[in-house]
Every structure is written in C-alpha cells, then in structure tokens.
Amino acid sequence: MGRTVIKNADWVVAWDPKESRHRYLENADLIFEADRIVYIGREYQAGASDETIDGRGTMIMPGLVDIHSHLAHEPINKGYTDETGSRGLYNSNLYEYMPTMVGDEEAAPWQTRLAAAELLMSGVTTVVDLTIPYPNWIDTLAETGLRACIAPMFRSARWFTRNGHVVEYDWSPDQGFGAMEKALQLLELADKHPSGRLSGMVCPAQIDTCSPELLQTSYREASKRGLRWQTHAAQSLPEFHEITRRHGLTPIQWLDKLGVLGPTSIVGHAIFVDDHPNTHWSTAKDVRLLAESRTTVAHCPTVFMRRGMALCHVGRYLEAGINIGIGTDTYPHNMIEEMRHVGYVSRLMAGHPRATTTADVFNAATIGGAQALGREDIGRLAAGAKADFTLVNMKHHLMQPSRDPIRSLVYAAADRAVSAVYVAGEKLVADGRPLRIDYERAAGEVNAAQRRAEGRVPERDLVGKRSSAEMSPLTFQKN
Question: For residues 357 and 400, what is the distance between their CA atoms, to the nearest angstrom?
Fold first, then answer.
C-alpha cells in the first residue's frame, strides 16, 4: 500500500514525545500508511505511489477517546429525560424515571448506530460502550468502524422505587455471577473479532447493585486477563447514603477497602466524594484515595447538569494527580460539546476561570482516555500511533477568528466544523457525514422505538402507573 499524505494543513495538533504533550504545528503534513501514522512535520517529499490530500484550510487533531458511553440505551431518552428527576431522591433520574423509557430488542442496534454516528461526527474514534448485551451487539459495533471497547454490564441486583423516595434492591440468587460469566465470554469474542478494532472491559454495573464478592471477583478476573475494569460509583446522593448505611464508608472508601481501585480501574463518575458540598461527610480523603491508587475518573458532566448536579471540581482532581477521561454518558453523543461542559462546569463550581484550562479538557479527551485504556497508540498524533484522527474545517465561520483553533472548536464550532474522521486509516466521516452508518434510517428507527416505548411507560412506572405525558410533560401542550 502506498502512503497517504495530507499536505500543508493549517494546523496539526501533534504529540511531542520528549515533553509528553500536544503542540500546535502550523502548515504541516501528516502521512499515514495502512493503519499507522508514519510522519508528522513540514515539507514532506511525496513519492510517486503516495496519495496526496490538500490540507489547506483544515486542522488535523487526534481522534477523541470516549471512555464512558451507553450507546444502546441513551438515544431513546431524548425529549423524555431532559428535565426529569425525583424530588424525593435528591433529583436523581436513575430510579424513578430512567427505568420507564426502555427500548425493545429491535431498537438496540439502531440506538447503537445512531449514537455511533453522533460520536464519529463529533471526532470520536475510540469509545467504551457500557451496555446490557443484546443479540449481535459486537457485530453492530464493528460495522460502525469505531475502535470500540465493549463493556457488557452485569450486576447482583436491580434497583427500583415504589414511592419516589425510597430505593429498593431486588437481589438475584446467584449475585450476578452467571451474568458475569456470559460477559467474560463476550469479551473473548470481541478480542477475536476479525475487524481488529474491538477489545473488552470488565464492568460490574454499579457499586450499590453489586455484592462485594462480585466486585472483587470481577476485578480479579480483569487483572488475570489483562483487562481494564470500570464501575459506576459516587454518582448519586441516594447511592452515597446507601453505601454509607451498609458499610459506614463512602463509595470511594468502600471500593478502596475492597481493593478494587488501581491504575487499571475506572470509576464513573466519582462526583459525590466525602468533601463534596452536598454530602456533609466526616472525612476528606476520597480524592486522595483516587489519586494515590492511580484510578481514572470518567467525567461526564452533561447528564448531571440536567439535574442540577456537578463534580466539584475537575480542576482539583487534576491537581491531586487523578487521571481524568471524558465520556458521553447521555444524548447527544457529542464529545466536543461534552468537552465544553467539562470546562464550563469546572469553572462554575470553582468560582473562577482558572480551574480548568482548555488544554486540560483536550488532554482528558485524548491522552487521558488513552491512559485509562492502557494505550499509547491512540489519543495522539505521532509516528507509530494509530491513524485515528479528525479533520476540522478551518474555513467554517464558527472557527473564525482562528487565533486558537482548539478553543474555537470547543467553545464555538463543535461538531459543525468536523469535516472528516479516520479510524485505522479508513475514512469514516466525509463532509461531516458518516460513511458506514445510515444515520437517517437509524434516527427514524429510534424515533419509532420511542413511540413504542411510550406505550409501556405506565406498566414500568411502579410509583403511580403514570403515562409518559404525566412523567415528562411536553414543553407545550398539544391542541
């Protein structure tokens, strides 16, 4: 195969291996061959077999790494859970509202395709998909072309509420070990998939729905197999209170006691730590425990902003030495908008604009995510790295003025300026549109699935058999 040369790009966000950081290069070239980058610099002398792409008017940046997403579950919630939250459960959406809008098996692959298209169009090249497994999940992910880490969720209990102010747990007889075994089998299939772009992660779903034995055993399995491990913890005040009631420890302290924090662990979302202003706990050591154990935090501010909640604040987590990755935990699966929210929410919670820089945010979305996954060949543009990168249209009016193109992208243009995306050297987005995914059909199928799901809302609502219109009234009444 010949080499492909992207010539004279206005800007390249290149990796400086000596200083271990991104740098801007102006009027530079990027050359890739097969699935690898072979050269980044200026004045490359193209050979006869090279394909040359005119890079003028573009910025080339590394593909973004999304470490916490629910592709098959979240798209159907659009227009339904935007403003919901239980008054009696500290405004959490998890227990009363989210279980009432659930897609059927037919909807799952279309939700995956729709979310994957949104991710690609916002510059994501690698995603961790935390999903309840469905038939053909692995093949559906592979067909999108994304570099995907599957994280089939399993648990010991399901949560529910009968009254909107008490969370109950229905524990399975085998504590979820059967589901874990099935998940481990899926991870083996993903690793052997012919696409070469799939991998796996061990994922006990939530700290409060998993027994101590399941958390510890799953962590040992991940270590034995050389895999990463991720769970949801410190994501709601009801969960914080449940864990302190059961164990007399905060969620982070309980994970530490179980021995499951470490450099191969990811905690989503680690918001309600002991010194968060809303927990009023007696210690102030959770952030230090995360830092000392070298645990990654998957930070996903958008879904919590909707409920009036926020991590406080990501800048101090970074200062403590915690590795931060970013996830699109909800719709829209727009990584650049999520990055914007990371910066803005951090500064709002800190009360000043110095809390988190744009470089901090971009690092979290690239090398922070790569570190969480134990990879040095993604999240950066350097010779030898995977050819996973995004082209941004510098001529787009929202990218102008162009004094600092990453700031213009994050705070103004977002996905609207993304023109092309490559994964493993394959172009998956052209002119801002996905090439492998029928985006319009996926959107239509999920829309139809939401209509079907609306009819089942009353039977899923254990509090009062309410209709979807009662659970989540429309912005304006219909005539």
Answer: 20
Q: Tokens 């799952």, residue?
A: 108
Question: Average pLDDT for residues 53-82, to the nearest whole number?
Answer: 97
Nearest to 141 by CA among 112, 115, 111: 112
Give the 3-state secondary structure of residue 422: strand
The CATH fold assigned to 64-372 is TIM Barrel (3.20.20)
How many beta carbons lie within 10 A of that of residue 130, not counting itself?
Answer: 27
Cis before 238 (ω within 30):
no
Rounded average pLDDT over 172-188: 97
- Asked whether 382 and 15 are in contact (CB, 8 A), the reply is yes
For 20, residues 6+ apart whose C-beta sits below 8 A from its C-beta are none
Q: Report how far residue 240's alpha carbon sits from residue 225's, in angstroms, rounded to the nearest whole number.
A: 30
Task: Please say if the pLDDT value at position 48 is more than 70.
Answer: no
Q: Which phi-psi region, left, alpha or beta, contains residue 174 (left: φ > 0; alpha: ψ -120 to 50)?
A: alpha
In tens, the pLDDT along 388-427 reads 999 999 999 999 999 999 999 999 999 999 999 999 999 9
Q: Exposure of 477 by Cβ count < 10 A (0-12 exposed, 13-18 middle, 19+ buried)?
A: exposed
**CB under 8 Å to 16, separation ≥6 — which residues?**
22, 23
| DSSP assigned state of 41 | E
Provide the 10 A C-beta neighbour count for residue 470. 12
CATH of domain 4-62+382-434: 2.30.40.10
The secondary structure of the chain in percent helix, strand, coil, rounded to multiples of 5, reads: 35, 25, 40
Number of residues that make up the chain: 479
The residues, ordered by sequence, that sit 6+ positions from 54 with a Cβ below 8 Å of its Cβ are 7, 8
> Phi and psi of 231, rounded to 5°?
-145, 160
Q: Which of 1-5, 29-33, 115-119 is predicted with the least confidence, judged by mean pLDDT?
A: 1-5
Q: Is the pLDDT score of 44 beyond 90?
A: no
Confidence of residue 1 (pLDDT cuts 50, 70, 90): low
Would you list the domain boundaries of the chain?
Answer: 4-62+382-434, 64-372
Give the separation between CA 388 and CA 125, rounded to whole angstroms: 6
Residues 154 and 132 sit within 8 Å (Cβ to Cβ) = no
Tell me the DSSP string of 246-276.
HHSS-HHHHHHHHT--STTEEEEE--S-TTS
State phi, psi for 380 to the nearest 5 degrees.
Answer: -155, 155
- For the chain, what is the mean pLDDT? 97
Q: Could you tell me the pTM of the whole model?
A: 0.97
CA 144 to chain centre: 16
* C-alpha distance across the termini of the chain, in Å: 62
Q: Please confirm whether the linkage preceding 332 is cis (ω < 30° from 0).
A: yes
